[in-house]
Amino acid sequence: MYRAVAWRAVDRGIDLDDEGSVADVARDAQLEAEQGRVVIDGHDVTRAIRTPEMDAAAARVARLERVREVLVERQRAYAGDGDLVMEGRDIGTVVLPNAHVKVYLDAHPDERARRRAGDTAHAAQGGDVSAIATALTSRDHSDRNRTVSPLTQAADATYIDTTGLAIEDVVLQVLDLVQAARARA
């Protein structure tokens, strides 16, 4: 959601430091995020929001308290009472602190950079793993140190280090956690 709002604000020529205007975009936007697609105000931005420029723009937007208030409310409404998977840097700590299953996925910065370098949306960085790792580390530092909803692992989240793991292996670990939670319910 933060990436889509950042994209829409940039698309409209809004200064990302103008908290009120960016919060208005967040409040007024028609947002859809389903089955791997992200659409904002009729624009499919699924790929457009996964660029280095949008990484930086989303980090700036995520620091804005009024934008966070609007999007946290939208995320909670989207979650409703149903079963769903939601990812984000404050989902388990702020958005859905009472979720039955919380997972904190992590990987070594070099691993994350290699994965990102393989993403065609980041081709502008020329696959420079070192530059990508630096950008990711900088974003993490910024998100961990923001005053509103900082990036942190929820105390009751299961930590999974995905370094060297195939996606399928990570999915199986998460499914095991979900099945265990359902068995307890």
UniProtKB/TrEMBL annotation:
Q: What is its EC number?
A: 2.7.4.25
Keywords linked to the UniProt accession: ATP-binding, Kinase, Nucleotide-binding, Transferase
Membrane-crossing ranges are: none
Q: Which residues form the signal peptide?
A: none
The molecular function terms in GO held by this entry are: ATP binding; CMP kinase activity; dCMP kinase activity
Q: Which SUPFAM superfamilies match?
A: P-loop containing nucleoside triphosphate hydrolases
- The kind of enzyme this is, by top-level EC class, is transferase
Q: Name one GO cellular component term.
A: cytosol
Instruction: Provide a GO biological process annotation.
Output: nucleobase-containing small molecule interconversion
Q: Which CDD domains match?
A: CMPK
Catalytic activity line of the entry: dCMP + ATP = dCDP + ADP; CMP + ATP = CDP + ADP
Domain Cytidylate kinase, by residue range, is 1-179
Q: Which Pfam families match?
A: Cytidylate_kin
What the entry lists under PANTHER family is as follows: CYTIDYLATE KINASE (PTHR21299:SF2), CYTIDYLATE KINASE/PANTOATE-BETA-ALANINE LIGASE (PTHR21299)
- Tell me which family the UniProt entry assigns to this protein: Belongs to the cytidylate kinase family. Type 1 subfamily.
Q: What is the official name of this protein in its record?
A: (d)CMP kinase
Q: What organism is recorded for this protein?
A: Luteitalea pratensis
State the encoding gene. cmk
